[in-house]
Amino acid sequence: MTKQLTFKNLPHKTIERLSQYRRALLLCLSNGKTHIFSHEIAKIQHITSVQVRRDLMLIGYSGTLRKGYNIEELINLIGNIIDSEEGINVAIVGMGNLGRALINYFTGKRHKLEIVAGFDTNPDKIGNRFSGVECYSITELNKIIKQKDIKVGIITVPADQTTETAKTLVKAGIKGILNYTPKPIDVPDDVYLEEYDMITTLEKVAFYVKMSDE
Amino acid sequence: MTKQLTFKNLPHKTIERLSQYRRALLLCLSNGKTHIFSHEIAKIQHITSVQVRRDLMLIGYSGTLRKGYNIEELINLIGNIIDSEEGINVAIVGMGNLGRALINYFTGKRHKLEIVAGFDTNPDKIGNRFSGVECYSITELNKIIKQKDIKVGIITVPADQTTETAKTLVKAGIKGILNYTPKPIDVPDDVYLEEYDMITTLEKVAFYVKMSDE
DNA sequence: TTTGCACTGTTATAAATTTAACAACCATAA
DNA sequence: TTATGGTTGTTAAATTTATAACAGTGCAAA
Lengths: 214, 214
Ligand SMILES: NC(=O)c1ccc[n+]([C@@H]2O[C@H](COP(=O)([O-])OP(=O)(O)OC[C@H]3O[C@@H](n4cnc5c(N)ncnc54)[C@H](O)[C@@H]3O)[C@@H](O)[C@H]2O)c1
Ligand SMILES: NC(=O)c1ccc[n+]([C@@H]2O[C@H](COP(=O)([O-])OP(=O)(O)OC[C@H]3O[C@@H](n4cnc5c(N)ncnc54)[C@H](O)[C@@H]3O)[C@@H](O)[C@H]2O)c1
Fold this sequence. Notes:
- Two copies of one chain form a homodimer.
- The N and C termini of chain A lie far apart (57 Å).
- The first copy, chain A, has helices at residues 12-30, 38-45, 49-58, 71-82, 97-106, 141-147, 162-171, 198-213; strands spanning 35-36, 69-70, 88-93, 113-120, 129-130, 133-137, 150-155, 176-179, 192-195.
- In chain A, helix 7 links the parallel strand 7 and strand 8 (176-179).
- Chain A contains eight helices and nine strands.
- By secondary structure, chain A is α/β, with parallel strands linked by helices.
- At the A-B interface, helix 1, helix 2, helix 5, strand 7 and strand 8 of A face helix 1, helix 2, helix 5, strand 7 and strand 8 of B.
- Bound molecules: nicotinamide-adenine-dinucleotide (2 copies).
- One nicotinamide-adenine-dinucleotide sits between chains A (93-99, 119-122, 125, 138, 156-159, 161, 165, 180-182, 196-198) and B (101-102, 104-105).
- Chain A binds a DNA duplex through helix 1 and helix 3.
């Protein structure tokens, strides 16, 4: 009897790396490569080959000795683990500079994850399409979220609109939020939240640059 | 004799949180608040109050019992630690959708960290200003980096230009890079690197949303 | 004045994550 | 045929990070 792999308790960091591995593997595949060694993946991701092998062990994937890992197989396996079979629909609230940049970047990149609606308050934006994504009025949010079975929301509204936007999304039944505004939000326990602020990252870079000077 | 605090070996995570604390504290200060408790900071950042107190202990800050921490003092102390005294100049390469969104967001937000130049290859962009930041030709990169003493570079060029852009920045003597393209780069050991891809974050959110369903 | 309460600061412990160590494997070359 | 080298898979150890436990403190209410 083989060990049951549930993937439920994969380390959070491993989940992140699986996404990164897939991104790298897709690129390799498009370059005509069919197999790859753990140390090659490691080099791309700036980590050690042990870590790569350990992650792959955790998801139960075995490579071929001396040939490495089959890129296509591995991409598919990672997909089986991190993607949702039926796909997950995403909405983005705030079709400003950042929102449009994200839509333009993301759209069409992943099969099982799709931005299917944008929302804004600005009448000039409502009714238009941006990189193929239709922009609706914020007043229709609740309706559209349910209609299109949207599970994840990305927040890119002005900072002072963040709290209200988060509330609206939660009330509409969203299950995951990615908040790009610099205003942290509160969500119920059953909503998964990630927040990102570029300033923190930039300050971190600046800190270690300063340190290396001293 | 008091313990010498060097800040050189603060945990990486603490550095990130200090930046986040400051962001939150600045907001509180602008709302007229003068003091704050560890559990209040913790709530904002979705962490525990122990962690906040531990971080502040590491930087040697003491609050007033039953009154909490003096917000202004703490902001200044965090600044003394993570900011560079003389300030650090930043350049952004690729003045497209994302690059302009980042500039517009960041400019004027921090005293000791300033985006002082943008670079692009598109003649329509070169010579213009975006949110006050002048866009130069990529051919002038080396000269301007040295002239303006730029230490950190942000990369927001198309993915297939990433490697070349990174090389150019490194050759110009940059000490830190923040790469927003989905193409990982290699840098020498003395250059500090951070990479961020929104797809990884979004896939992580989607994964945990899927998991909560099962 | 005294007691309890709500904080802080710090040390001890636990959990998460990374790295090291090494056996097993097998293609290739001697 | 036999050693060699380079790779995987896995367990063990180390490191990093977060949490728990608790003593110390001083305000406020009794
Ligand atoms: N995390 C990061 O790295 C990062 C980078 C840049 C910007 N930001 C933040 O992202 C947010 C957006 O930045 P931007 O440059 O795109 O700003 P922007 O002003 O260009 O866009 C904001 C958009 O939100 C719309 N909007 C306003 N109120 C709304 C509401 N209540 N509901 C729905 N839509 C609403 C506006 O009409 C506009 O289209 C800001 O909060 C900014 O601070 C974050
Ligand atoms: N990390 C993220 O979350 C995220 C989000 C969105 C986009 N992106 C990535 O960021 C990058 C930029 O995205 P965008 O939407 O702004 O694209 P864009 O096409 O709008 O902008 C790219 C800019 O780079 C300029 N450019 C091209 N080649 C150059 C070179 N060699 N040197 C200097 N400038 C050059 C172009 O003229 C253009 O102005 C892309 O790689 C994209 O994949 C990342």
